[in-house]
Amino acid sequence: MAHAHKLEILRGLIKFKSNTQKIWGVLILLSIVTAVEVVLGIYKPEALMTKVIGMKLLNWIFIILTIVKAYYITWDFMHMRDETKFLRRMVVWTGVFLICYLVFILLQEGGYIEGIYSSGFIKRDF
Q: Does pTM top 0.90 for this prediction?
């Protein structure tokens, strides 16, 4: 029994007529997001250097754009949109918790190392 794929991206905002068109559409979307990341990484606008929750706003933008790219790669190229709701949630929530944990580690350990180098002494052995 053939299974029809959903031929839309961005929550139905853009619709396609075939799978080939959708693959090209997702590729173009991912390329645009990557181009935005590269441009921001090269120019590093001064307005995005303000600290928000312990990290520069530019770093938060990079993290969010990377999550968007991971979502679309998983959703379209790994065909998660065609799986059951339970399996989709299990995969997505595992990734969300992992990303949150890794960001927490980044902030904790980065702050500790920065504190050691800026104050000139070691508070604990690591």
A: no
